[in-house]
Amino acid sequence: MEHKMDIPGLQSFLIEAFPQVAGEIAVTELAADQLTVRLKVQDKHLRPGGTVSGPTMFMLADVAVYLAILSRIGPVALAVTTNCSIDFMRKPVADADLICTARLLKCGRVLAVGDVLIHSAGQAAPVARASLTYSIPPK
Fold first, then answer.
1. Quick check: pTM over 0.70?
2. Mutual angle of helices 54-73 and 7-17, in 10-degree steps
3. Distance (Å, whole) CA 46 – CA 49
4. Is residue 2 part of a domain?
5. pLDDT of amino acid 1
6. Closest C-alpha among 101, 100, 61, 98 to residue 81
7. Is residue 70 domain-resident?
8. Are 112 and 133 contacting, i.e. CB atoms less than 8 angstroms apart?
9. In a domain, 1, yes or no
10. Can you give the residue range of the structural domain that contains 48?
11. Which residues lie across from 106 on neighbouring strands?
12. Residue 57 clears pLDDT 90, i.e. is over it
C-alpha cells in the first residue's frame, strides 16, 4: 500500500495540528502497514509509584494509530477515535522512553482499525496492548 504521508510529513502535521504532543512524540519507522513512534518520557508522564501513567499510554496508542492512518489517507485532521480497548500488562520503566508500534488491520473509506503494542525502551515484554477504531470523515 502506498503512503500519502512520509515521516517528515507526519511530524510536520503533528507540529501544526497537535503542538501539545509534537515535541514529545517522534515517528521512528514507517512500513507498509505499521508505524512506530517513541515517547520521550518526562516527569509529567509519571504517576505515583514511579511509573508512566495510563492516560499517557492511551495518548501514545491513540496518536500512533492516528498517524498510521494519516500515512495512508493523507492529512485528514478530523479522523476521530470511535473505540479503544487497552490492556495495561506491566509497569513501564519510569526512566525509559516508550516505544509504540501500531499496525493497521483495516483502512477503509469510513473506518480504520489498528492494533498497538507499547514497550519500555530496552525491554522485550510489552507494557500495554490496545485496539483502536477510527471514523474517517467523508471527502
1. yes
2. 120
3. 8
4. no
5. 65
6. 61
7. yes
8. yes
9. no
10. 7-135
11. 113
12. yes
